[in-house]
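Translate structure to sequence.
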């Protein structure tokens, strides 16, 4: 519910600022922001929308910052320029006076662990500031240690958003807990009763649940006492390096991610980046082979996504990568034997 709350914050804020037309939100293709009615509209993953209605007229989408799948012949730097131009054009087409916020995951999670080009987030924030558009950083996945910091927005990507949403790692999943964190400037507007009598009245049945909050507080204490963020910063680059060795496998198109948020993208052809047919279920096959040997990785179509425990050691990383390599090799053998891939 953190992202739903964020949009309510945005709408109320602009109403109280005398800008009631600033209601639309810009999201991105392949973004994931949740499954409630409004957050599902913010989500830009096409297959998540099949068969469902959604909140119409609120969300506009811009291109996914997916360097591996950038247009042919375009450098990563040129691709970043193109992405910024795409955002600027969307703002021009919709009208800055109609746009309340831009929402972005620092690294896109369910959309494929997409790490944007260097400088992308800082430039999108600059565009938003120039057009009086609030910036929402969805840190539900990247927050609380996944990238080695409590929050990645400023520490990793050098931006200070207007709103940060978080969940998952805030309690390490022991209790359901999320948070919507707003800037002081927004708080000053939201917290004061308005001349028309409006007050920001919002909440849920279990908002501020004492047991969930106690679990979150204790979880944060443990993160600090055991320096888990420091451990991730120290060991994360080793995880990136070891997973990167899988690039020598014919089925692997790209290994990407940061620290303890990683992905392997599997392809039919490394040169053309062509994918295997969806019915081959390549990600699922790899995940099944890995699980037989004690490793759980998440299959998403042709991808395998990895978000391991933040206490994973270098020795465990070695074992992790060995099992995953074996699972990919076993899948390669299966596909060749079945005649659906020639290697």
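Result:
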């Amino acid at each position: 519910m953190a992202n739903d709350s964020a949009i309510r914050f945005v709408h109320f804020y602009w109403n109280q600022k005398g800008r009631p037309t600033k209601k639309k939100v810009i999201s991105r293709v392949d973004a994931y922001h949740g499954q409630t009615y409004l957050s599902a509209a913010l989500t830009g993953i096409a297959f998540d929308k099949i068969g469902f209605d959604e909140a119409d007229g609120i969300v506009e989408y811009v291109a996914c910052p997916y360097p591996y799948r950038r247009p042919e012949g375009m450098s990563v730097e040129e691709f970043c320029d193109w992405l910024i131009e795409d955002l600027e054009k969307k703002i021009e087409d919709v009208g800055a006076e109609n746009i309340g916020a831009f929402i972005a995951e620092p690294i896109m999670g369910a959309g494929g662990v997409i790490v944007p080009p260097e400088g992308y987030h800082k430039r999108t924030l600059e565009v938003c500031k120039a057009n009086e558009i609030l910036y929402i950083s969805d840190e539900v996945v990247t927050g609380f240690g996944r990238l080695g910091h409590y929050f990645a927005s400023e520490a990793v990507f050098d931006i200070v958003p207007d709103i940060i949403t978080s969940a998952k790692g805030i309690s390490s999943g022991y209790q359901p807990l999320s948070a919507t964190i707003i800037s002081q400037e927004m708080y000053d507007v939201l917290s004061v009763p308005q001349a028309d009598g409006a007050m920001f009245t919002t909440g849920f049945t279990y908002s501020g649940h004492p047991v969930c909050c106690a679990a979150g507080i204790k979880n944060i204490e443990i993160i600090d006492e055991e320096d888990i963020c420091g451990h991730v910063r120290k060991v994360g680059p080793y995880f990136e390096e070891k997973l990167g060795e899988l690039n020598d496998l014919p089925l692997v198109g790209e290994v990407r991610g940061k620290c303890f948020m990683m992905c392997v993208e599997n392809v039919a052809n490394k040169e053309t980046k062509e994918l295997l047919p969806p019915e081959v279920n390549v990600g699922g096959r790899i995940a099944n082979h890995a699980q037989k040997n004690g490793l759980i990785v998440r299959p998403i179509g042709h991808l395998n996504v990895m978000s391991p425990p933040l206490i994973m050691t270098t020795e465990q990383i070695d074992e992790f990568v060995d099992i995953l390599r074996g699972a990919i090799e076993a899948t390669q053998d299966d596909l060749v034997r079945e005649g659906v891939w020639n290697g």
